[in-house]
Amino acid sequence: MGFLSDWFNWSNFLYLVILILAAVGTLVSTKLRVIVAELKELFEVVREANEDGKYTEKEKEKILKKTFDVLAAILKAIWKPVFKVKK
């Protein structure tokens, strides 16, 4: 049984846990890539608006619109799998 202790140690266990978490993260990110894309666009708009340190009304409206786009993407991702309508 000595050969098993070479394979089943804490180091290999941690590698396995990291591998499993990476696989789960990949599955989640591919499923929710629309949300990730919307968040990326929101962060870009906020970064551009924050360059001068002041927010104009136009920039505030743009940020609010992108925030609603993110919320809509989240609702679509949640609503679709939970409430499937049979045709």
Question: Characteristics of this structure?
Answer:
82% helix, elongated
Shape: elongated
N-to-C SSE series?
HHHH
Mean pLDDT, all residues? 81
Uncertain residue segments: none
The radius of gyration is 21 Å
Secondary structural class: mainly alpha
Intertermini distance: 58 Å
The major beta sheet can be summarized as: none
Number of helices: 4
Find the count of extended strands (DSSP E, 2+ residues): 0
Percent of residues in β-strands: under 5%
**Helix fraction bin:** over 70%
Layout: helices, strands, pairs:
Blueprint: H1 2-7, H2 10-31, H3 33-49, H4 57-82
Characterise this structure.
The protein has a domain at 42-82. It has four helices and no strands. It has helices at residues 2-7, 10-31, 33-49, 57-82. The radius of gyration is 21 Å and the shape is elongated.
Brief characterization of the structure:
It is built from four helices and no strands. It is mainly alpha-helical and 87 residues long.
